[in-house]
Amino acid sequence: MKTTSADIALEFIDRINSHDLALLCGLITEDHVLIDAQGRQFHGKREMERSWRACFEWFPDYSIQVDQAFANGNLAVITGCVMGTYLIHGRLSRENRWKTPSAWQATIRKEEIAEWRVYADNEPIWKIMHEKRYAGGKPVQREPAPFRQALVNHRNAP
């Protein structure tokens, strides 16, 4: 049976859900591009490893639940939900849990993910992070560097 683009994208999601960075980065191209829901681009395998590490530090229970997968040539589209809990001071509290409908588009090259594009309403996530991070008007913890600027940009957005 031939491997489809959807099969590869689903394998990538399995690797994301495993939180195993070596496995995860083993399925992306050296020139991989991730385009997040705000349109920011992250380039290259090293940047992706740092970004995923930060994501798993922020959200130790981060996972993707797949509803449907479609393939057309080298493109795959996955729909479902992404969920996690924002870690504060080493604790996972139910009040910091979020879940949001999402879709992902994968461009496959030589059975690896060359581009991963995320479509999601991240507002519930940013709201929790902003409320918890700036409790009492001052930062309560420092986020991992790859995403720190994204949080600052979101807080300052109109």
UniProtKB/TrEMBL annotation:
Pfam families: SnoaL_2. One of its GO terms (molecular function) is isomerase activity. The keyword Ribosomal protein does not apply. Keywords: Isomerase. Residues 11-115 form the SnoaL-like domain. InterPro entries: NTF2-like_dom_sf, SnoaL-like. Signal peptide: none annotated. This is Ketosteroid isomerase-like protein. The lineage of its organism: Bacteria, Pseudomonadati, Acidobacteriota, Terriglobia, Terriglobales.
